[in-house]
Amino acid sequence: MAVMTEPADRTWGAFPETAPWVLDRADIAWMPVVDRLRTAARDEVPVLTRPSRIPPGARVATVAAHLTRAVGTWAWRKRRGAFDTTPGASTADLSRRLRRGAETLGPTYIKLGQIISSGEGLFPAALVEEFKRCRDQVPAEPFDVVRRTVEEDLGARLEDVFDHFEPTALAAASIAQVHAARLRTGEDVVVKVQRPAVATLVRKDLRAMAWLAPHLVGRIPVTALANPPALVELFAETIVEELDFRLEAANMVDVAAMLHDLGQQGYVVPRPHPRLVTRRVLVMQRVSGFNFDDVAGMRDAGVDTHEVVRTAMVALMEGALVHGIFHGDLHGGNLFVLPDGRTALLDFGIVGRLTGERRLAFLRLMLGATTNDVRTQMAALRDLGALPVDTDLDAVIRDLRLDQDPIDPTTLTGEEMVAEVQRVVKAMLGYGAKMPKELMLYVKNMVFLDGAIARLAPDLDLLAEIGHISLMFAERHGERLGRELGIDHTQVEVNLDGVKAGFGLEKDVQGLTYRELQARRELIQKRMRDHVESTR
């Protein structure tokens, strides 16, 4: 009987056991140019986001026309009483029109829609639900366009590389679409193909956004805190790297190596092909499993959905704090849950990278959160770039009342809650706060995990789970990270009072399930909505 041997690349990467090919990091055709490409992408961002004195071409007018049409038509129908009395009918209609407008405008705005779709709890539920269609239900490019792109980039006829290439896309999103295929050598693969001219269009859109952003400062209340110019720069940092699939393939290798180094058994990463990766084409190993929203299917197969959530929380934190790298775009379309309960990560166009002092600052931020050290958290946010370097941290703490006992928001009226939000926003604006890229990606992932808990583990005790993960993390990595921070890790004590304060809970509360948290949120949101409606 033949003896099955472990693929050699599983000694350093978290790849599936079945290997259509084995990766040798010293013999990957596209790897030598990756550092140069990443540097070039980073250097391009300031150029793209520098506002011009005059509008950059007709693209500004095109964008304004489409968005004005979407909002204007909705407003006209609302004035005429075209919507029935079904709760949310008007909001659903506006959300649908905005999503269609984004799809018409193309990749940049579809990507914005994808970010909104991951913002459950941050954006209106109807808007989030509608923009989920931007993840993988965007109209696909015709097959002849796909063929032309693949043949140009691989330098060969489609039939010379693939035994079969499925003309219908498995999924289509902002930057690219994916097709199932089989190589001439017999391996089943997925081929990611960039949309034609997308790189040129994205750069035009970024220049248009950069011109428009300064004109929005202080004019639209919801954009004030975001700091529109900084938001454009943040968005540019995330999308420019996505325009070269060689960077994405390198991200796959790096994340797989990180997961293996951590001993993280709950995740796998499909192998990119060592030869068939170009700027616009990425051939990778095909994996399949349950969609992340298929809770019933997972449970019927015996998958422990609570463990799926725990693994995601631990892997995200360990990757960021220990290795300074994490998948930056978690959402339901980028994950499969395998029948054995492991999760396959997909789509590595956006990856968070924390190096040097920024990783240590992020580590201090998390340490301050679990030990309830507010000043450490504020200093870490400053060092991450969320606050100016000359910020008076004690003044920030006083102005935000972080040195006082938390107020349970469920005890406030709608008017009091709105006033509190306005007070915090005004204070943050006064200090020039902004959201660094890596922190934004991490928070966005946490928002996704928040929604995942709602579906997969609604009865999970959040406080107990956070405490358990903190202790586990200290046991695994405390000595190493304490050495890096110059502290005695044995003297660090977990104190969840700050975490409780973040939930608006009193210090004596001992447990909080997601169901209870959601009920609190719904009460808060209802009171704020009622107050806003009463003032109209």
Structural description of this entry:
The protein is an alpha+beta fold and 536 residues long. The chain has 2 domains: 1-286, no CATH class; 356-534, no CATH class. Helices cover 54% and strands 9% of the residues. The protein contains 22 helices and 12 strands. The chain has helices at residues 34-48, 59-79, 89-105, 107-117, 125-131, 133-136, 143-154, 158-161, 198-216, 221-224, 228-240, 245-261, 295-300, 305-323, 356-371, 374-384, 393-399, 414-430, 437-456, 462-485, 497-502, 514-534; strands at 162-165, 171-172, 176-183, 188-194, 267-268, 272-277, 281-285, 290-291, 325-327, 335-337, 343-345, 351-353. Strands 1, 2, 3, 4, 6 and 7 form a 6-stranded antiparallel beta sheet that branches. β3 (176-183) and β4 form a beta hairpin. α4 packs across α5. It starts with 33 loop residues before the first helix and ends with a helix. The relative contact order is 0.09.
What order do the helices and strands come in, and which of them pair?
Blueprint (H helix, E strand, L loop, with lengths): L33 H15 L10 H21 L9 H17 L1 H11 L7 H7 L1 H4 L6 H12 L3 H4 E4 L5 E2 L3 E8 L4 E7 L3 H19 L4 H4 L3 H13 L4 H17 L5 E2 L3 E6 L3 E5 L4 E2 L3 H6 L4 H19 L1 E3 L7 E3 L5 E3 L5 E3 L2 H16 L2 H11 L8 H7 L14 H17 L6 H20 L5 H24 L11 H6 L11 H21 L2
Parallel strand pairs: 5-11
Antiparallel strand pairs: 1-3, 2-3, 3-4, 4-7, 6-7, 8-10, 9-12, 10-11
Helix pairs in contact: 1-11, 2-3, 3-4, 3-5, 4-5, 9-11, 14-15, 14-19, 14-20, 15-16, 15-20, 16-17, 18-22
